[in-house]
Amino acid sequence: SSWFATWPTSGGSWPARKGRGGAEYPRSVISLAEARAHVFERCPGPVVSEVPLSDARGLVTAAPVVATGAVPPFANSAMDGFAVRSADTVGAPLGLRIVGTLAAGAVPDVEVCPGEAIRIMTGAPMPDGADSVVMVEKTAVSDDGAVVTVAVEVGEGNHVRSAGEDLLPGEEVFASGTALGPGHLGVLASIGCGSVTAFRRLRVGVLSTGDELVEGPAALRVGQIRDSNRPALLALLDEMGVVPVDLGLVVDDEDAITAALLDGVARCDAVLTSGGVSMGDFDYVKVVLDRIGEMRWMQVAIRPAKPLAFGLVEGVPVFGLPGNPVSSMVSFELFARPALRAMSGHTDLERQRVQARVVGGLKRHADGKVHFGRVVVEYRDGRYLAASAGGQGSHQLTAMATATGLAVLPDGDGVADGDLVEVILLG
Ligand code: AMP
Ligand code: MG
Q1: Average pLDDT of every residue of the chain
Q2: Which of 16, 100, 134, 244 has a 20 to 30 Å separation from 273 between CA atoms?
Q3: Peptide bond into 410 cis (omega under 30)
Q4: Each residue of 186-233: pLDDT tens digit?
């Protein structure tokens, strides 16, 4: 996709800074397109595995699925009614002798001969001799139950579902690369697949960093805040169908962060950290990533979510997301989500984007960056409308929670009321 590559990305430059680990960090601000390309190029490809059907929802097939048998497996009735010989109904209304009853699951043991009918239920196999079904609404049975009066003439094959009408043996059911939804799982079950060859479901760890962070309802002492990034990021992962792994909370200490990261990459396919990647004195995540991995520390010309550290530790991608709550979620959307989708075998990596008419204006200031405004999107009278979701600070998580879209605000002073803006739909 090229949409992000065309955004204006000119930017100022930030002062060079010596990291605590001794590394010289880059001074220039790079475009979102460059940052994304850097990340995507380094993420490993998807891994093929055999997955039980019960765990396959959302996974992507890694091989074509071929039907081994026909679906439906036998000709059966599409209605509750009477199985008849269609030729016998010519001149209806007329009476036919009832010679049996077939429920779904029954094995037919009586043939329908001329002048006869068999009571048949939806899904029951067509009996020999019959080529058509008259629905029960078009029939009346005599008081003694011996004769059915058929009110209408029916042609051959009326309300009959023939064998293989949905799938024929040997037919390709789904191509390789199919994302499996509920309907796909139903089809796989219908052809007797107990498992499917698909790209493995990822396990992705989430680690919060910061001396100020606490977890749970306990009273906060001065300087403390509650860790909100971890639950939000774990939920974003869960929502996109990867297995979230809670790697906990770690203080701003090199050894502690090193241990937590090494633990994370040992048991996960990717790790997300938040905090510790900006310009502060205690931002150790980028220092540790630099020391134990192949890390690039980026200043991206976007707002929120300017800083990003991305590296490979033991070959496992680590996304050093920024600490501000809105920034961590936006960074997840722009970098982690598409990269993890690619690692899961998806080829469509991006959220849906629409043009929306701005309601009430979306203000910003010119700073050389692309801004992502948190907006509520509505579809009304055939078009999308987008209005600010509330406070746009990168610490104001409530607007992010309310938002159903991210408005792409090019450099400048914003988009006026009534003008069009591109919006990334969230979910
Ligand atoms: P940092 O990048 O570590 O300097 O963090 C930037 C801002 O985000 C600071 O105000 C942190 O307190 C805040 N922050 C960092 N991590 C979290 C978190 N897990 N939950 C909530 N806020 C956080
Ligand atoms: Mg911090």
Answers
A1: 94
A2: 16
A3: no
A4: 999 999 999 999 999 999 999 999 999 999 999 999 999 999 999 999
Dig out the tokens for 355 from the structure: 């043009």
- The ligand with the least distance to the CA atom of 231 is 1
Q: Dihedral (C-alpha) 209, 343, 337, 335: value to the nearest 10 degrees?
A: 70
pLDDT tens, position by position, 145-200: 999 999 999 999 999 999 999 999 999 999 999 999 999 999 999 999 999 999 99
Q: Is 280 in the pocket of ligand 1 (CB under 6 A)?
A: yes
Query: Average pLDDT for residues 237-255, to the nearest whole number?
Result: 98
d(CA 245, CA 204): 6
Q: For residues 238 and 43, what is the distance between their CA atoms, to the nearest angstrom?
A: 20
Distance CA 67, CA 408 (A): 45
Nearest CA to ligand 1 atom 6: 323
Residues 61, 53 contacting (CB under 8 angstroms):
no
Pocket test for ligand 1, best of 274, 285, 306 (most atoms within 8 A of CB): 274
Q: Whose CA is nearest to atom 5 of ligand 1?
A: 323
Q: What is the 3-state secondary structure (H, E, C) of 279-338?
A: CCCCCCHHHHHHHHCEEEEEEECEECCCEEEEEEECCEEEEEECCCHHHHHHHHHHHHHH
Q: Are the C-beta atoms of 316 and 340 separated by less than 8 Å?
A: no
Using only C-alpha atoms, what is the Rg of the chain? 31
Angle ∠(345,350,351) on CA atoms, nearest 5: 125
